[in-house]
Structures are given as structure tokens and as C-alpha cells.
Amino acid sequence: MKITTTAALLVTMAYAGAQKAPDLAQGQWFNTAKPITKADLKDHVAVVFFWTFDCINCKRSLPAMNRMYERFAKQGVKFVGIHTPETQTERKPANVRAALTKEGIKFPVLIDNDAKNWYSWHQTAWPTVYLIDRHGNIRFSVVGELNFNGQNDEAKLDTEIEKLKQR
Hints:
Elements: E1 11-20, E2 29-30, H1 38-41, E3 46-51, H2 56-72, E4 78-83, H3 93-103, E5 109-111, H4 116-120, E6 128-132, E7 137-143, H5 153-166
Parallel strand pairs: 3-4, 4-5
Antiparallel strand pairs: 1-7, 2-5, 3-6, 6-7
């Protein structure tokens, strides 16, 4: 499996059309009592976060993701982390669990060891955040480290989440 990482790539995209979010290929889940499916996200604004625990850009983005989760989960916004490993160490569920504890991650996380989600979502870099509207359409994304080099991606994501909640 060849997956590309990025050190400083930052791309923010707003989707004008209705690009449907792919289904979630299933695997082992953490921080949830049951697996989450695309149907569980229906009628909710959702945040989907592709990451891996040894990626420095992901580590730097996790505090922003945790803050957004704390702000928006109680308002009905659904969060899904998709952990797609780059190294053998990152493939071990016990290591993922330890990283969740160390980083204080409380949102549900799916282990994507076979990269089915990575490829179905046409991923190219860690981290990537997608905002999904109530109809299952991708409406906004950020590729690369959140808040990199003074960019205020967390505020942009907050604004876009608020817009989607109003629709």
C-alpha cells in the first residue's frame, strides 16, 4: 500500500455541488458502543477526520479537532475519525488505543488498516477534514495541518459547521 503524506500541504475547498460522501467501510471502532455507518450520519452535520497517530501534522491538528468535538458534539454534530496507518506500528489496535488516550480523543475512531476508506474517499494526505451536510454531501474540506503557518482553519471549520447546521 502506497500512501502519501504531507508536511505543509494546506488546501481548503468548498464544494458548490452535491458530491456524496462515500460509505464507511467497516473495521474496528474505538470510543463508540457500535459501529457507525453512513446511515447513522443521515440528518446530521458530520465531521470526518482522516489521520494517523505518528503523523506530526495530525498530532498538531488533534487539539483543534478535540476542541471542535467538545463544542459541537453536544449540538448534534457527529464526528468520525478514520485512522489509516502509514507504518506497521500504527496498524496495531493497542497502539491506536494508547494514542487516543494520550491525545485525549473522545470522538469515535475507525481503524482503516486495509485503507478501504482512504481509497474510497480518494485521500491523498494526512490529515484531512471533511464536513458533510444533513443529506450526506461533502460541503467543505481542509487538507493538511489545521492552523498551519497562521492559517485559522479551526475558525473556518467552525463557521462552515454553523452554516451547515442552519440548512
